[in-house]
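yo

u said u wanted the structure for the complex thing, so here. seqs first:
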Amino acid sequence: MNAREKLIASCERTKSQLCIGLDIDPKRVPKSCGEGVKGMFQFAMKIIAATADIAAAYKPNMAFFEALGPEGLSLLKHIIGRIPPEAVIILDAKRGDIGNTAEFYAKSVFDLFKADWTTVNPYMGYDSVKPFLERKDKGAFILCLTSNAGAQDFQWQEIDHVPLYLHVARKAAAWNKDDTCGLVVGATYPDQIGPIREAAGDMPLLIPGIGAQGGDLEKAIRFGTANFTKPAVINVSRGVLYASEGEDFDKAARNEAIRLNDIISRLKNTPA
Amino acid sequence: MNAREKLIASCERTKSQLCIGLDIDPKRVPKSCGEGVKGMFQFAMKIIAATADIAAAYKPNMAFFEALGPEGLSLLKHIIGRIPPEAVIILDAKRGDIGNTAEFYAKSVFDLFKADWTTVNPYMGYDSVKPFLERKDKGAFILCLTSNAGAQDFQWQEIDHVPLYLHVARKAAAWNKDDTCGLVVGATYPDQIGPIREAAGDMPLLIPGIGAQGGDLEKAIRFGTANFTKPAVINVSRGVLYASEGEDFDKAARNEAIRLNDIISRLKNTPA
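structre next:
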């Protein structure tokens, strides 16, 4: 089973297209979890325990762990080690460097941290993403149209009347020889997801921007999955992790995940 | 003294425009240095000792350390801690993420690892680089035209008859309100450096691609510094680190650094 098949199987198993982003900000960890790195670990364990049956994937973001130095990377390894093996692990790193250096990053995310998927930045072109795409049992979501305001600075710029993000989608489709490639497409630009899905063929999409960023869940899932015929996961980070600041944070996280999954299920059972 | 002034001062102090890239591949560390992480540390110490008076900057690349996990980040901290404080430290990380996440990356490179400068990827636009540029005592080299073959996939694409890399240079110049911004421009595309320098104004350039990548040192330095009137450093990694595979590796590294500096000095004393 390659990473694409694992993603599809995990969505079927959990009847969910939800990815929970583990963006653990030490300042927002409830006091009951404890202090420092131990508190972050406890918090992650409780979030995972509360959502394991309804999250197709978990997406830790490297930045939050790297900012804590060596201890942070140990924490990340421990958290990933406790995610159920059937759940998909997307290590959000947005790496991109020249070929021989990118190989070291690929080793890091796939071999050291045991991620199924990672995220990569396309700006440096094919040789910077090749070491990730060549790993036949793994996958790389290439940043295409990101969910932030800054996406407009370059991604929206038109080359021969086609925006850069669509060029990226088309190149990625051409690079995707081993079914190891996916695309990151923000829910904050819902009307752009349709054309990207068309260029992407059967590639999985990772769709962030729901919740704190205000993206459009319904359009994102309709266009992103081409009405539930193609693989896609919707990521939510802060909206689930910090659904409550109280002691009931894990219950609140579960409820928010269920609420989002219910919206998606209703769409699935309603003709477009 | 901000990071830009430190860079200029360090070039003057060393009479050099050389940046030595600390891309330490454990497989290429000479046996005499010892095994594993300790061997890498010894290797770095000997390279730094052999070049401290002739290197304006050192540029460790995060990938090589991250691939070793927590131990690798400890190693990086220890190596940076032993670089003479007057030398510029450029932590090559090529990070880029949405604003609140980018802040964690900025903390990592500047506060935890104590870098003066880092490298950032522009694909996600202004809010992804802002947390780096806002640090008035620090600096960020934005990837503009990178030295690898893949640069042609997107960076060379034309928007309104202007290649994307030149749009990046112009945006960066507009974002550079606090003199905290620089650009990465590969020596492998020497004829493109002139127009980038023009767009960049007084921003420092970080120019990789000399040595293993086959870039053009003479054009790079002429165009990159606008005939020694603007700040720029030339990076060389493998060409210096692995100048010899024998026990004399540190002497060979020094000789190679001196050889490159001599070429630059001769150019300085020869009218364009």
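Chain A is about 45% helix and 15% strand. Chain A touches chain B through 54 residues (CB under 8 Å).
cya
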